[in-house]
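To assess whether the prediction recovers the assembly geometry, we first specified each molecular entity separately, as shown.
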Amino acid sequence: MSKQITFTLNGNDLTVNIKEHLTLLELLRENLGLKGTKEGCGSGECGACTVIVNGQAVNACLFLAVEAHGKKITTIEGLAWPDGTLHPIQKSFVENGGIQCGFCSPGMLMSAKALLDENPNPTDEEIKHGLAGNICRCTGYVQILDSVKAVRDSD
Amino acid sequence: MKDLNIVGKSIPKLDAVNKATGRAEYIQDMEVPGMLFGKILYSRHAHAKIVNINISKAKELPGVKLILTGKEVPGKMRMGFYKDNPPLKSDKVRSFRDEVAAVAATSPEIADKAAKLIDVTYDPLPGVFDPKQAMKKDAPLIHEEHKTNVLRLPWKLHYGNVDAAEKEAAFVAEESFSTTWVTHCCLGTSGAIAEFDHADNLTVWSNTQIPSLAQKDFINALKAMGLKNKKARVIKPCIGGGFGSKLDTYAYEHIAILLAYHAKKPVKILFDRQEEFCATSTRQPAIIGIKQGCDKNGKLVFRDISMILDNGAYTSWGATTPSVMMMPITSLYRVPNVRYSAKCVYTNNTYAQAMRGYGNPQATFAIESNMDMLAGAAGIDPLEFRRINMNQPGDITPQKFSITSCGLKECIDHVVEKLNWHGPKEKGVGVGIASLIHVGGGARIYKSDGCGTMIKVDDYGKIDVFTGATDMGQGADNVIAQIVAQELGVFVEDINVIHSDTDICPWDVGAHASRTTFVAGNSALGAAKKIKQHILKHASELLDVVTENIILQDRVAFAENDSEKKIDIGKILRKAHFSANGNMLMADYFYDPDNENMDKEFKGNLSMAYSFGAHGVRVRVDEHTGKVEILDYVAAHDVGRAINPLLLKGQVYGGVMMGLGYALTEEVILKNGNFMNPNFRDYKILTAKDSVPVQAPIVETIDEQGPYGAKGIGEPGCVPTAPAVANAIYDAVGVRIKDLPITPEKVLAGIMNMTDVVKPEV
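The predicted structure of the complete assembly is given in tokenized form:
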């Protein structure tokens, strides 16, 4: 069964016809060609596919695309400013060594953004909690946490 | 050495912006026009004869283009250094991960569905899952033609006289340890795309750590397929983590090649997470017996180690990890008499491969746990015991390793100071230490330990560096760019490092043995020095200053003693190019270190330099639950020189966390060969919630042979972690854990069984 949905993706309104069983991750990667969002496990355990739906970080691999109807979705491709300037969170990850192989990075960055949008002054423990759903095998999390703390502590 | 303005600076990873914006392209993201999707069908038994494979139903499924079984695989197409592993099995299966058939179809979903429709009839055989059982005479044979389950590998050495030394020893400690299977858990799963051109030349896109050796494997595969004198090109997309997992070629790559050849279409195979767990190779598990002795002053007099390694059903690099285990066994601390033997035994379990440390974490777990036991027997403080025995610059070890730079003492000092080792401890809190030695100046495992670099410079001072090295996230590109920029007096942003294509890049043995900074770094430095000579020669003519007095810095060449005499490097290049008999600056350099292959007795200076380190940890053990909490962690490493402290610390932090997983939580649970926890819910890798306070002091010993003095650091961070934690637990509650991982259950059982264990003084 096919269904038409309308939603806002990275600031642009979009209407698409999709199969009802499609996940948001499949819609983004396969139908729309936005390959920045990664699939690390396909079962909601690693967080590599994290995107922001109406302000909340969600695993796109577990989120049915039809549920996106009427919602605002931000992916890694929409994180930088439209002129290409890096979002402060991206800049901080780049400068503080929060990125190694980079496969977890899009999801990690989106989780960090959702966390800081909701709570601009999280405690160290709250940051750890906010990123607990995103697995990283390279960094040992130290420089990822440093990156988020640096954004929190700026201004 | 003159002031360094680029080497030694924490310059962000060159590809970090691409990765932070979702632009980086991994194998997951790649498509080749017209490509089909491959899917592998795995065995349903640990050990069984294949009676029949019926593909008729699968073949009828619309969209299915090709189905291959073991019968279509040429007999000579074999993988692994022991050549015991065909990409598809035809006669029998020897483990659950055995590949029995493969499908190529127009979509991943169809391929998946078709694979499920393949009907395989098996005749189950008795399996053997314990290497000790597999060594028995009546054990089922895994490879009948091999006649025995014990591999014919030469892992045996004896230096000095261990038996005589044991008789003389004042104190002896003996124990058995074991380590289990753990797996790399790269966030980017494995995958490959294979494509043939009109003349049957092959291109493979694969996230490999060994492009040059993979190319050789694929050429051999082509030969086995009857395609002689054909070319194989290996292109690496961005790699989603390596850690050793990509040091061999796998069945999925060879199957993609076979499917692409027979289907006459490009074929992509991409693992899902369960496949990544079940069908890639683990770290080698080991059963370790160790005995060490010292004299009355605490000096080590002998070390005697024997191991049994569960090889699994096939042979990849896991079976060669004893060659690296020999390094800590013979050379961690000064020990004059050493004996070591290891048996690798076929079982119906999964087979092992390289994983960060390549045997060193297993060996060091036994050595350093037993060091504490021996210190206890001798009544010497564990810290003092290590100081008595630590390696020193200028040492030649029994295996003939030549220790040049060695900062082990300074590393131990850092641990003592930064961990507040002698500070007060409450009940249930303990501290532990463990040291490490690792190759830090290449490792001559293969016939060549070399790496090539080519540099071309354009008319504006932009520099393309073509390297054989592989960046899989660890930062090789930065190391190379920073070295070249430093040498040529330009900025890092002027450097473009190209490392992705065997058609373009020179040869390199691979991203293993923590060798890239040292070997690829020296190679890049050699090529940069040649370019520098060209630039200096032209600058000398233009400035009328002798080359010795010209400095290259910040894109400018200037006279050392007369800053008025200066010229932009770009201008020099243009003048060199656009003049009569013009000259475009290019250079190449192949660096193969002067290290030695080990001889028949396993002696020889394997590496040009050795990396040292010491880890210290403070833990709190809950005596009611057995839960271990890491309160503080210090990982001090002698790295020669930190080319980039930010990225270097990233390697240490990542290594420590991987090591803590190895110590405390990670375990592939195999039940009669069947992988019981192939997902991130049940295979417990640590998350941000589990992150611990880690300090990573850097000791710079400026190694004479290293590029700007640098040594390798990729693997060491995860080597001494488990024994440091085990020693701290003993210090806290008096329980000696001998089997990894150190689960709360084991600690609690230890606490409850402690009636005959003497509690340490707290």
